[in-house]
Amino acid sequence: MARGITPVFTYGTKDAAISGQALEADPFLKVGFTQGFKGDIETQLVGSYNLPNVLAAVAVGTYFNVPADNIRKALQDYTPSNSRSQLMQKGSNKIILDAYNANPSSMKLAIENFARTEGNNKILVLGAMAELGLESLREHQGIVDEIGKYSWKEVILVGGDFMKLSHSYRQFNKAAEAGEALQKTEHSFLLIKGSRSTGMEAVLNYL
Question: How confident is the model at residue 51 (pLDDT cuts 50, 70, 90)?
């Protein structure tokens, strides 16, 4: 789609004007750069799946000649809000709230990252993904398969095409129902994620 548009300024994990890798993400993402930017950036973003966002931001800043120190400071000082990869504490529970949006790739990466993150009594609370068309059932099955690769204290699936699949996990039609089921949860680490339409942040009202 970009053919014929000039100039083109690229970012990515290799062979780009701005190239970088996730050095760690337990839970916060630290990015190291191999091309176009010097030094590391330690963010307050949860998960390695935020790497493309950081690379894009550095690329835009670099292209418009923002000083490198200003780029670094802006990204290191940014604290996510509005259900975007927020790390929070409620009572004895630690929570990653990533309920602004969800698609198959971001959901799988979030599950994988959460599985690798240090912590005990991990609970997955996942809302259905919207707007996937004819591929929706297959993509939701793919998420169920991904969940099964790891060990969890508990898994709760909410709404949409999760309800049409055969699996052994607890399921509810609405986020509030999942919240009610979790209201006595203590000393656990939860990932709450789903498409905007599922309103997964409602779970927080019960924790």
Answer: very high
What is the CA angle 150-151-153, rounded to 5? 140
The domain tally of the chain equals 2
- Lowest-pLDDT choice from 38-47, 76-85, 105-114, 153-162: 76-85
Tokens of 7: 């100039």
pTM over 0.85: no
Q: Are 110 and 188 found together in one domain?
A: yes
- What is the residue whose two structure tokens read 């912590």? 119
How many Å apart are CA 7 and CA 10, to the nearest integer?
10
**Residues 45, 53 contacting (CB under 8 angstroms):** yes
Residue 25 burial (10 A CB sphere; 0-12, 13-18, 19+): buried
CB 61 within 8 A of CB 26: no
SS3 category, 124: strand
Q: Is residue 4 one of the residues assigned to a domain?
A: no
Helix 104-116 and helix 136-147: axis angle, to 10°? 10
User: Quick one: pLDDT band at residue 178, thresholds 50, 70, 90?
Assistant: very high
Per-position DSSP letters for 129-172, written without gaps between them: PPS-GGGHHHHHHHHHHHHTTS--SEEEEESGGGGGS--SSEEE
Handedness of CA 97, 142, 199, 79 (dihedral sign): positive
